[in-house]
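Supplementary Methods, section 5.1.

A reviewer requested that the exact input to the structure prediction be made available. We therefore reproduce it here, unchanged from the version used in the analyses.
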Amino acid sequence: MIDADVRTLWDFNQMGHEPRRVDVGVGLGSHDLGVADHVVDLFGRGLFPRIVFTGANAPTTVKGFPRGEAMHYREHAIALGVPEDVILIEPNARHTVENIVLTKETLARHGISPASVMLVAKPYQQRRAYTICRKHWPEVDVVCASLPLSFDGYVAAIGDVELVITMVVGDTQRLWVYAERGWAIQQAIPDAVEAAYRRLVGAGYTARLL
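The structure derived from this sequence is encoded token-by-token as follows.
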């Protein structure tokens, strides 16, 4: 049952958007350098001409990215051939609300007012990022993207199944908690998703709950 429940949450937290050309690609900082890899790939495919990497540190990233998530993402993208002058960094955000709000402010300081953005995130972070963006940046057309990995493929890439499950459970909880706190728009939570979430919490996957 745990396996089926995790996959239920995994699927729900992705938006299913088709990548398309936008004004700015935004790489949301995290423990997962694959986000930066996907930003580089999408940039190379011509889907956006400008990149913002956003993120300071969290308990899950401070060891791996001691100079901050955004800075390490930037360095990684440049090493993969992205020109330095197309990248802006936002180095202060400590959670997804700040990722969105501070990215908007960073672009404004550079005189950039995009009509459309692509939020590039971990697969299970897509829906949370989308709901926050619709609340705090409603004037932009937003598309979400992630590396096209299955749950099993993502676990293989990260190498820690328990970490991934606890993160998926935590992101699911944040959908309604953030809406209740006024940080995100409301999302309808299907009964099957809520039931899967509650079973996983009951099974002890609570490390990332608020």
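The first strand starts at residue 24 and ends at 28. These observations are discussed further in the main text.
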